[in-house]
Design brief:
- Pfam families: HpcH_HpaI.
- 39% of the residues lie in helices and 11% in strands.
- It has 149 residues and is α/β, with parallel strands linked by helices.
- It has a single domain, classed as Phosphoenolpyruvate-binding domains (TIM Barrel, Alpha-Beta Barrel).
- Strands 1-2-3-4 form a four-stranded parallel beta sheet, covered by helices on one side.
- The radius of gyration is 18 Å and the shape is globular.
């Protein structure tokens, strides 16, 4: 091995501190900041690249919306993006492609900190989104794919 490639004990990384390790962001933090009237800055992620998701998380945004309505990815591509954002402790909101219970359930299985419902253009659509939000809060069950414990 070349001398430049050798590692010495002094250059070893420090042991991992569990208190400073990247963890999934606490969902209530985003909500409490919004309720407090704090101005938050976010970004819409239209591509399904976990690398770009990680970069946006590291850029310091308060949240990132992973857009499945206008973006190029679907539910399968959203999971790696949510995991990349969780690694940076950036809250992720998942924008659904359609207002439906089926999409809401699939999205909740991925463990985002929030859902954004598309095309709320009528009182019926608003009522449906409120119902899905209430059901999500009460009955959310996370699968093995979820980044949450």
């Amino acid at each position: 091995m070349a001398p430049a490639m050798m590692s010495s004990p002094a250059s070893s990384p420090p042991p991992l501190d569990p208190d400073s390790a990247p963890l999934s962001p606490e969902p209530r933090i985003l909500k409490s900041r919004l309720v407090a009237g704090e101005t938050l800055y976010g970004l819409f992620l239209l591509c399904s690249s976990p690398t770009l998701a990680e970069i946006t998380g590291l850029a310091g945004y308060n949240y990132v919306v992973v857009d499945m309505e206008h973006g190029s990815g679907g539910i399968v591509e959203a999971l790696p993006c949510l995991r990349a954002l969780a690694a940076t402790r950036t809250p992720a909101i998942l924008r659904l492609p359609k207002l439906s219970a089926a999409w809401a359930k699939k999205a909740l299985d991925l463990g985002p900190q929030g859902l954004m419902f598309p095309m709320i253009e009528s009182p019926d659509a608003a009522e449906t989104s409120l119902l899905l939000s209430a059901l999500a809060k009460k009955f959310a069950i996370f699968s093995l794919s979820s980044p949450r414990p």
